[in-house]
Specification:
Layout (H helix, E strand, L loop, with lengths): L2 H4 L6 E3 L3 E7 L4 H10 L4 E5 L5 H8 L3 E5 L15 H11 L5 E4 L3 H4 L8 E6 L5 H12 L2 E9 L22 H11 L5 E4 L16 E4 L2
Helix pairs in contact: 6-7
Bound molecules: S-adenosylmethionine (SAM).
The site of S-adenosylmethionine has 18 residues, from strand 3 and helix 3.
Amino acid sequence: MTIKDGLKLEPVFDIPLHGRRGVEIPDVGRDDFAKFLYDYGYRVGVEVGVDLGDFGKTLCQAGLKVYGVDPYVVYGEYKPPSTDSAVLYEQALENVRGYDYTIIKKFSREALKDFEDNSLDFVYIDGNHTLPYISQDIFGWERKVRRGGIISGHDYAVVKGIRERQEPKVYDGVHVKFAVDAFVYIARIPRLYILGKRRKKEGVKRDKWRSWFFFKQ
Ligand SMILES: C[S@@+](CC[C@H](N)C(=O)[O-])C[C@H]1O[C@@H](n2cnc3c(N)ncnc32)[C@H](O)[C@@H]1O
C-alpha cells in the first residue's frame, strides 16, 4: 500500500461527534510521508519541533524545503531535554547542514508571524504535545497552509502525563488525538488520515508513534 493508494480507502474509525471519518493507511510510516509530499507536488513547509533535526533531514532528503521551528529553551510546560538546549541547537544545525532546512529559533506561536496566511504547502506539527500547545499549533498553522495543502503531525495518541496527577498540576502528557479530532470536527474535515494500522501486526510496517494528516479545505 502507498499513501496515494490509501487516499482512496474508506474510513474505519469515528471522530467524536463527526462520525466515521478516520482512515488508517496500512503498512506506511512517516518516511513514506516525506516522499508522498514531494511526489504529490508539495515543496515548501514548516516542521514545528525540530529537536536534533532527524525528521527534518528526512523531509529534505525527499526534496522538500523546510523551515523548522523550535525555541531550544527549557520552560516549565515542556519536559526538559536530555541534552543542554544550547548544545542540542548546535547539534541540530550540524545535522541539517547542507540541506534546505532553516531553523527558526522561536516558540511556535511567535514564528507564526513570520509566515503569510495560505502560503505553505504543508506543516508537520511535532512540538509541545499538551492540549493548549497542540491546539494552538493546529489552529495557528492551518491558516498558514494554502487550500489543498496538508496539515500533519506526529503522535496521534493520548497519554496521561505524570505531573498531571501531582500538585501543582503541570500538563505534560500527549493530547494530540484530542486536538486533532476536535479540529477535524469543527472544521468539518471530510477525512483524517493516520499512517499505519492501530494494532501492530507481525511483519507489517508501522511507526511506534503514528503520524496524522488532512487536507486544508
Ligand atoms: C519530539 S521533539 C521533535 C522531533 C522532531 N520533529 C523529529 O521528529 O526529528 C519536540 C521538539 O519540540 C520543541 N518544542 C517544545 N515546545 C515548543 C514550542 N512551543 N514551539 C516549538 N517547538 C517546541 C522541543 O524543544 C523539542 O525539540
